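Recall the central idea of this unit: under ordinary conditions, the amino acid sequence of a chain determines the structure it adopts. In this exercise we apply that idea directly, starting from the sequence alone.
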Amino acid sequence: MDNDRVKRRKVESESDNGRTQLTAITALPDEENTGSVHLKDLIGSPHLEAMWQFNFMIDLAFVLDNIHKNAMSNIKCRFVMGDFSGEKIAAFRAQAKSLPIADNIEVGRAKLSNLFATHHTKMMVLFFNEDKGERSAQVVIHTANMIHHDWDNMTQGVWKSQKVKEKRKTNTEGSTSTFETDLVAYLSEYQLDTTSKLIKFLQRFDWSSETARVVGSVPGTHKDKKWGLTRVADLLDEHKEDHKSDYEGSESDTIVLQSSSIGSLGVTDKWITPQLVGALDGRSPRDRDGHGLPASQIVWPTVENVRRSFDGYDLGMSIHFKNESDTHRKQYAYMKERMNVWKADNKHRTRAMPHIKTYTRFTRAGKLRWVLLTSANISKYAWGSVSAAKEAKFSIPSWELGVLLFPQAVGKAVFDLKDSVIPYDWPLTNYSAKDEPWTKNADHLEKDTNGFPWVVTLDGKKKLMRSHEAL
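Accordingly, the structure predicted from this sequence is:
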């Protein structure tokens, strides 16, 4: 038995108690990966008979390499991706047709409204047929693209539902939980054959034990339906109302935003505080005033964080923030005072750069009032935005999905940080005067962990390089 398989099985045995987990880091020793999860732990069962994979990037060969050999010949594989031009989907389908299991693969194309919108949702829906013929289902909502890079040395988060069994024959009609209702509502928005089939499969199973709340973003201009900012605002407003006593002293709380991409948000703070932080305080994004909100902070890797990471500057390729133009510098000016370095010593991930996206609310004592694990970055495209016009239209360009977790669902008033999927340390560490936010679009000449600089400009041309020849 090879060392990788020994390591995986050891980690898997440690992680069975966790509903939210961080993915295992290849560069870490076993003891620092305790409680983590590998992709094979999720889709490597010999009893897996069907899976739906929703994602932004999917390497088909990588996914199939993580399927158990005993499941490979009969497994039904369904993929949902977004592609405005259709070229990537066509290439993916061509790749699938060349495989021995081509007849078992289907690909659905999520509709996108423009070239810059994405299908960014990251979800697996898995169906198992156990030894005694008992069938079970599991939903996995996570933050990783289905590519090797994302499951190697980057910090990622995973939420797993329980493996649920089929409904009793006497109770086959209707939803068994809010979770089921919400997930079916989200899937219905795709209007694809493959998602319609998935809904029918999901509705065969009993989701009554599941308490997580689904937070989705669906492209479009929305008036009545609640997606993105309006969805999370509604859920958090309801939570505050239902648990007023648990929110005593909440005026001294801090809402923390952490993602792997920060979009173009404008030269003045008209979105991040009044709309995003406002929604995370349970306020409608249409309020737009931003007054009386809790303090907010942002966790974002510095250049030094990335330089010293396990894979050096290469890990910065998946972390997106522009700080080169005058417009972007003005945006950074109003964000700078709440920027905090990536520091995750307690969970051994300071050198594993974050692709995870989390939003949470800290009490003064460092406890968590709720946790949101999601594919949605800090961007208008992910969460949606309210227009400045009088009619205040709320629109979302991209697809996203996350789960909002409340401690009351497990009999607690707050979560402990150490038991949550939140990876970074508390208290936070503010940027020092010399710290700069990581951007992959600028030169970084100090050599990284691997002994290379990061050079993007050469003879007036943009060119990504990581070799000594760049200097």
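DSSP finds twelve helices and 20 strands in the chain.
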